[in-house]
Amino acid sequence: MIQIEKLRKVYRTRGREVTAVDGVDLTVREGEVFGVLGRSGAGKSTLLRCVNLLERPDAGRVLVDGQDLPALSGGELRRARQRIGMIHQHFGLLSSRTVAGNVAFPLEVMGVPRAERAERVAELLELVGLTEHARAYPAQISGGQKQRVGIARALAGRPKVLLSDEATSALDPETTASILELLRDLNRRLGLTILLITHEMDVVKRICDSAAIMRDGRVVESGPVRELLLRPGSELARGLFPLPEPVLRDGTTVVDVTFEGDSADRPFVSTLARTYSIDVNILGGAVEEIGGTRIGRLRIELPGEPDVNAAQLAHLREAGLAVEVHGAAGDPAAPGGTPATEEEAPVS
Ligand SMILES: Nc1ncnc2c1ncn2[C@@H]1O[C@H](COP(=O)(O)OP(=O)(O)OP(=O)(O)O)[C@@H](O)[C@H]1O
């Protein structure tokens, strides 16, 4: 649905060049919520703005619904952009217009006749739960309500794609939750594809089907959230389940075990301890509800160096758990060996 290929954007200001997006490939599937995470300056906004051509990429392709946007011009490009809605961190409402007036604005620009416009505005306000505030001015409503106006306005042209530029960053946690719930609901009800950028792990946890992590203009990992969480060394997993730096002691093996769904309900620690008559030390962990599935990460310590724990590690893998061994040059239980964890701080 959105295909980004070898995208590159360089800003040139006063003789200085900044490569904001440096060869990004990304595929956002139809009807999914895709989150791009990264620290400030990673290039997230630039990437998003290249999708609806608020920024012109220097190289690469952006295909939305099979259409190569940078290759379009004039009326074709205008029509293609109407099918892409966008919401912003600071809402961008017109203070002199009422809530209804703000939602009507893009319809006026599109030349929708007055009667049809009024009907569509009513429909949109209903969709975002603002019918009672139609006549209020932006100054008279809360931040969450302002974002609802932003969402209604973005949906005016019946887009298939919604781009969200840090839409909840200016909101308190409770309001953030209600806006994310609304986005999830619209995604399901309208089949809307949502590409959002955020620096908040919580946003990914609550609504994203897939995610990518950006650093220095590049995507360092991407894929379905569930798959990323089960992937050894995943930065997303470390961000969603923060655990302190492992303390590696001689004569022990420190292992991070990620589990999901059914395996989250099985007492794998006590089974492991019983089967091998060993003491298993629990060093930390958490269980979260992610995309309707319970996913957890537990750090455990086993007696003995990794090479004497090959059977124990294989036992955990056979139980359907993702196993990551810390400090081992190679995990002998995994085919080809699992490399030692590359420690780098997660994005937030
Ligand atoms: N209009 C511009 N002119 C020059 N440099 C820019 C411009 N916009 C962004 N940059 C630079 O490009 C890089 C990426 O910026 P971008 O805003 O895309 O990152 P970001 O991940 O969205 O960060 P933030 O969350 O702080 O917005 C940064 O180094 C930034 O300073």
UniProtKB/TrEMBL annotation:
Domain ABC transporter: 2-241
Record keywords, A-Z: Amino-acid transport, ATP-binding, Cell membrane, Membrane, Nucleotide-binding, Translocase, Transport
Gene Ontology molecular function terms on file: ATP binding
Stretches with biased composition (Low complexity): 328-340
Matches recorded under CDD domains: ABC_MetN_methionine_transporter
InterPro entries on file: AAA+_ATPase (IPR003593), ABC_transporter-like_ATP-bd (IPR003439), ABC_transporter-like_CS (IPR017871), ACT-like_dom_sf (IPR045865), MetN_ABC (IPR041701), MetN_ABC_transporter-like (IPR050086), NIL_domain (IPR018449), P-loop_NTPase (IPR027417)
Region (Disordered): 328-348
Name recorded for this polypeptide: ATP-binding cassette domain-containing protein
Species: Actinomadura miaoliensis
